[in-house]
Amino acid sequence: MSLLGDLNHSAFFPDSASSFSSDSDWIFYFITVVCVIFFVPICIALFGSAWKYHKANGEPADSQIDHNTTIELVWSIGPSFLLIIMFYFGAQGYLNHRTVPEGAYEIGVDAKMWGWTMNYGSGVYHPELHVVVNESTKLTMTSQDVIHSLYIPAFRVKKDIVPGRYNYLWFKATKASEKATAEQQAELDRVAKKNKETGESWSYDDHQFTPDGYRFYDLYCAEYCGTNHSEMQTVVVVHETEAELKAWIKKYSARPDGVTPAAYGATLYERRGCKSCHSTDGTKLVGPSYEGSFGTMRQLTGGSPVKVDENYVRESILYPKAKVAAGYQPVMPSYKGQLSDDDVNSLVQFIKSLGDPSAAGGEENNDTGSAAAETGDEASAAETAAGDATETTPQN
Amino acid sequence: MSAGSLRSGYEVNDPGYPTPQENYLTNSKGVLSWMFTLDHKRIGLMYLIGVSVAFLVAGLLALGIRLHLLSPDGALFNTGFFKWLAPEKQPNDIYNQVFTLHGAIMVFLFIIPSVPAALGNFLVPVMLGAKDVAFPRLNLSSFYLWVAGAIFFVMALMASGLDTGWTFYTPYSTTTDSSVILATTGAFILGFSSIFTGLNFIVTINTMRPPGMTWFRMPLFLWATYSTSIIQVLATPVLGITLLLLIAERTMHIGIFDPEYNGDPVTFQHFFWFYSHPAVYIMILPAFGIISELISVHSHKRIFGYRFIAYSSIAIALLGFLVWGHHMFTSGMSPMTTIIFSALTFTVSVPSAIKVFNWLATMYKGSISLTTPMVYAISFIFLFTIGGLTGLHLGTLATDLHLHDTYFVVAHFHYVMVGGTLVAFLGGVFHWWPKMVGRMYNEIGGKISAALVFIGFNLTFLPQFVLGSRGMPRRYATYDPEFQALHIMSTYGALTLGIGLFIALGVLLYSLINGRKAPANPWGGATLEWACTSPPPYYNFDRPPVVGDPYEFGNIEWDAESDRYVKVEPKRKVVPSETPAEKPAHAGE
Amino acid sequence: MATTDAGHPTDAHGHSDSAHGHDGHGDHDHDHPSYLAHHFDTPEQQFDSGKLGMWLFLVTEILFFSGMFCAYAIFRAWRPEVFEGCSQFLNTKLGAINTGVLLFSSLTMAWAVRCAQLEQHKQCACLIATTLSCAMVFLGVKAIEYSHKWTMGLLPAGLYSYDPANPHPVGGPNYLAYICAPFAAATVGVLIWLIISYLRGAKFQFAVAKPLLVVCLSFFGGVGLGTILESGGDDSEHGSVHVAQHDDHQHGDHQHGGEQHGGEQHDGEHSAEHTPAHAEPAVATLPAAGAMVDDSNDLAVLKRLASDATNTGLQGELKALEAQDKMSGGAITYDDSDDSSATIAASKDNVLRPSRAGVFFSIYYCMTGVHAIHILAGIGVLIWLLVRTMRNDFNRNYFGPVDYIGLYWHLVDLIWIYLFPLMYLIR
Fold this sequence. Notes:
A: alpha+beta, Immunoglobulin-like, Cytochrome Bc1 Complex, Chain D, domain 2, five-stranded mixed beta sheet, 12 strands, 15% strand, disordered C terminus, C: mainly alpha, 2 domains, 15 helices, disordered N terminus
């Protein structure tokens, strides 16, 4: 609440945590000083004249001089030199931003309304951006829908992400994120566990740590992109060593052993941006809520109804525009190629776990015969899908 | 007053020349006589009312934005009232629509027509010494186009709102389900309104100047209006075609801007800013013109560096066409293009600086009356200087990468648009109000409004510079808690600013009821509009005006007895080397 | 009303450098002719104002079109082959005829201005009517061109439904009839007006209605002319269609791993140039491409989507299909070229986006459509001018409106002179 709350760094800037920060801040202060040097005399002249030459009505002016070419040329041309200096430093700094060093560590960034997916290769996707300190990192960015802009204030970098283009960005983080102490980590784990039970999402602002126990830098979307533009935020974590980053990536590369698909689906729901459009408590957001949806009949935009079963859920994840629920816009991006088959299956199981048993039950009571047949179909379809997936996966 | 000392030429205070009973306000009556009027003064007044209503609406929306941002999770639009008002909308959606409409209405319906169309329509022919603009019917149609555009905006609001930001960036604007087509049609129509006004003024200034009114005897307001009109005529058609293509993109998917159909969103940005950057100068140049008049008249001193100011207006108008790329430094133009645009951006700062220095030099050793318009003019110079100087941070590439699309940008352009144009507009309205309606307002009330606007404005937007440099992105309905303190400050500032503006409105409206009758020349101005009665007669001048130097104050004297300025025989030679041979503003033949 | 006392000795005020353009025109005081608006001092001033205003308006018109010319330049620079290929679909003969008709109308318009200045009222009216007829012929030919293309499905990107296997689908709406209907209604209206004015003996109205009827009928003359040329040129045009059709298949196959052209397909550098010219043709080749799409489940979805040619979301799915191959392998498959060159065309084509051809037709319809709207507006003002000319409103001192509208008409003509080679003659 207090303005001085985080004055531990600088009044005007967030943390300075990349190789660009000091340059950018230096130029900023340089320009500011030049501006003040001009502004103060201007104010003195302005308010000074207003005070000193304030006269009663009718008193003539002290002078009627209306030009002085020398002075005018001096103040027209003089400041231009300062402008050239500013331009020069600015352009130089900018070229540094645009010149990616050889061998930079590459991370893919996929932006969509209203979430981030960082692609660490090997099928590892995570909404948080994790990088290594003192190592050049290059982000190659695409957008699936509208223009976004990746902005990390602490690194003083920003780049629009334009659909249909690849834009890139690089930086070298200079300050590693602090790690939580053991007791803090224990507390974080406790919260994480509780969140998992209640279905709450992780609040970075409240805890000031990522669930893995790192301090972080903010990463914003800076180009207006629709309803939840302001919630299109994630965090950047800077690791001490590459080994640490690799270990972190490994942790997220697949469904850990011993975790049920439904539970892992819940994680994916959190992590892959589903939750920004689909609620689990029946609230109508951009997309239909998952609560009690599984097993029911759903009206489509075209008019025909469809049963929400494994196949439909699977298809809606991979081809969201194929069957759009009535009353919703076809805005969901395709997750084809972004989720492993196990991931899709986990999500299906997760949504199934939120299904409304009473609805399904009621339906069965009404039409036992066909429902039974359908169930059989579903089962076989699910098998086929799984089979297809196993076929596809090794091929790739 | 001694009749003998009066110059009796066209000076309407001449006892031998009775003040006409009829003025443009009274020479015909009834609503229809206003609706179908071809008189530029009435059209100007109708514009003034129109843009004021637009400003009121957009200003209230701005207040909504500020109130919502009182709390990190959003305040105002989370309340039950808005749940009741728009149950199907989320608070974020409401916020997005509110800031979009705030921007669109302010830009298209208020700032662009404010000075050129409202004050310009009233003043250009009078200052020029003409009877009317060259095409009075075109002038009226341009007003009705403005009304039609405004109606389209209202329809967009009523239909499903608009949530694209006033910039209509594709592909968001081609995919969102808000009423983009209605709003863009409105903006398209407003574009034509603006073109017609600009075209009218260029022709008027070129062909309607009376004998003796040479280019360099034109008041600087006319130079500014002329430069503005050039931009309006040259830039606005590009906006027209851009919006037309956007509408086609939405309806037929023509695939020029929408990447879904192989189009390129960055092309849209280029097209859009090719208009919208010069449009920034449509907004600010006429303000420069007003300030040049205000500073000179209320300092009772010749404007310093007339030619530099006049040429810098033209220079800004032309350079303004070359810098649109600085809105797109982060959007992925090639580094070479980016650097060139940055360099060009710096060049445009030079003519603006020239003007500030010249105004200061005009005030130096003047005889300054701290009237309401002058107080506004002084706060303009202060605020505009801040706005201009912070532009340097944004024109510099390395810092812009950090500051682009943050509150720093928001603060910067509000310092230019509100601290600049709006304050100049208010100053201009206070300055010419006696001429328009023939009544004087309460000076103390006017000054209080000016002070509150100044304080409130700074309180609103200074914190936003800090918000921006600390990394708060713009157009955020919710934000990180660390920014809250500054947001609260900003909101209190906005409330103060709002109160100041309402006081200004009150002072002006009250003068209509209870104002002292205005003399022809309440401030001692030397331009031609002060030579006709307040308010002016239908054809502006009952006798053809004698064109003199617009900044020659030597033969205008304060007459304490009648509380007004009058024209006198020159009693003294003022700086003979500088002022051309004293024109005996002589009697009618 | 007080008018300017132009004899006012302004020079007495010093500043002898002032330009007094109007000193010699003081003799119009107090007797404004009816055609001189009250706020002007002299007819010269009025004429100059009008002319400057018109020129400024033409500047805005040019800038208005320049936006589209820019779009044309940008997209042609990115995809020259698409433009050249699609230009085949435009019938050069019809374009050339229209160019000739407009050029001739410009001549008659210029001549009409001259007649107005010389007060040859009758001749002036004839020439304006000729200009109007030419404009109508132009629109008639354009109606043929448009309706023909619409029937073939050569539409802007989002509506594009051209199928090279079936270039002339039957059973679609009769677009030509829709376009002709308002003109037919206008013709009938004028005819009725003509008859009524004849019966009532309203001489002036009758005199105006006569040329207007001719003008209206000219539209159908244009339609007839277009029909003859369109069918006469059928062979050559169909030839070109088949060429284009072949191109389509080629492009389509490339993208789908076409076995026949496999060699070029792997040339990533140039993949942009080898992407399908049309999305829908790409769809048409899908069954053949089935071999590469081994996930039959996906293919089923694609097929279902493809069956609806208006499903514009299709491309996203195709893209996903393609992207999956790469991405599920685990590699980051982003293009790493410098973003300065990563324009849509240059980036490795991540996309089977819809019709690139559609973009050509988008630009074609936008430019010629906006031009046609200008022709229509021109027809409107020319009719107004015709009536005024027949009323003998103009004289040697007052012919501004004819002059201004002449300027406008020349500009409309000029824009077509640029459109014709840029659209029709680029193969």
